[in-house]
Amino acid sequence: MALTSETGVETVLAVDHLRKVYNENTEQQNVAVADVSFTVAKGEFVCVVGPSGAGKTTLLRCISGIAAPSSGGVSFEGRPLTDVPDQLGLVFQDYGRSLYPWFTNGKNVALPLRARGVAKADRAARVAEVLASVGLGHVEKQYPWELSGGMQQRVAIARALSYRPQLLLMDEPFASVDAQTRFDLEDLTLRVRRDLGVTVVLVTHDIDEAIYLSDRIVVLSKNPSVVKEIVPVDLGADRSQVETRSSEEFLRLRGHLMSLVMPHDE
Ligand SMILES: Nc1ncnc2c1ncn2[C@@H]1O[C@H](COP(=O)(O)OP(=O)(O)OP(=O)(O)O)[C@@H](O)[C@H]1O
């Protein structure tokens, strides 16, 4: 049964005293995540920030069920996570390696649907719908290498959304594109999240990006990481790149987050 928070909103994800040690009990032992706990409510947008090497990617691997925690755990919709759940969409930084160059964009988007046994006619309709939702209805028959980097990442986002996930996990998804494309992809992600009601957890190095996108920001300490602070972002539902980023509240949050993640504060 799904848990509910004090506010009565359903908790989709609960990370409970998660610890991840690589190469445990060997000379190469490395505590990547020391002790991290937080929850994510249904429909919420949560960003995870922290210094380089803090264990952000490791945390996301554990949340997605790709890697097993050394201790502590993750619950998804009230059930302990033991595998990669079907209701999960994943988007990584490296779209160049996540799309298959020998498949058309449409076929790339259809892959998870095939894996889940969705019938051919439904697959075709779903692919067309989801590519249109990221503004790429016209590239279905083309190949990834015929598109710009930003367009390829939109195809990767469409693929993650194709099976209508409850939870979208994104690891530095906009780090490999230029600044203007990055703003466009941020706005696309906010729109998709609003239209589909999907819950999002996104890892980023970029404090401004985290503030622009989030309802709450989980700030990790330097490695081995613990949660330093969970910062609520009270910027309203309607955000715009120019106005939101120049608002007083945005600048206040930026100052606060900088003081949390800068090395002198450790
Ligand atoms: N597969 C692995 N095997 C062993 N150690 C690993 C592995 N993956 C990551 N690590 C180590 O775990 C620590 C945390 O790495 P991780 O990539 O999770 O951090 P990060 O916060 O995402 O880093 P960055 O911000 O630089 O991308 C680092 O010391 C890294 O070397």
Automatic annotation (TrEMBL):
Q: Which GO terms describe its molecular function?
A: ATP binding
- List the InterPro entries: AAA+_ATPase (IPR003593), ABC_transporter-like_ATP-bd (IPR003439), ABC_transporter-like_CS (IPR017871), ABC_transporter_ATP-bind (IPR050166), P-loop_NTPase (IPR027417)
Which keywords has UniProt assigned to this entry?
ATP-binding, Nucleotide-binding, Transport
Q: Where is the ABC transporter domain?
A: 13-247
Keyword Nucleotide-binding assigned: yes
SUPFAM superfamilies assigned: P-loop containing nucleoside triphosphate hydrolases
CDD domains linked to this entry: ABC_NrtD_SsuB_transporters (cd03293)
Entry's SMART domains? AAA
PANTHER family documented for this protein = ALIPHATIC SULFONATES IMPORT ATP-BINDING PROTEIN SSUB, TAURINE IMPORT ATP-BINDING PROTEIN-RELATED
Q: Any idea what this protein is called?
A: ABC transporter ATP-binding protein
Q: What is the native source organism of this protein?
A: Georgenia deserti
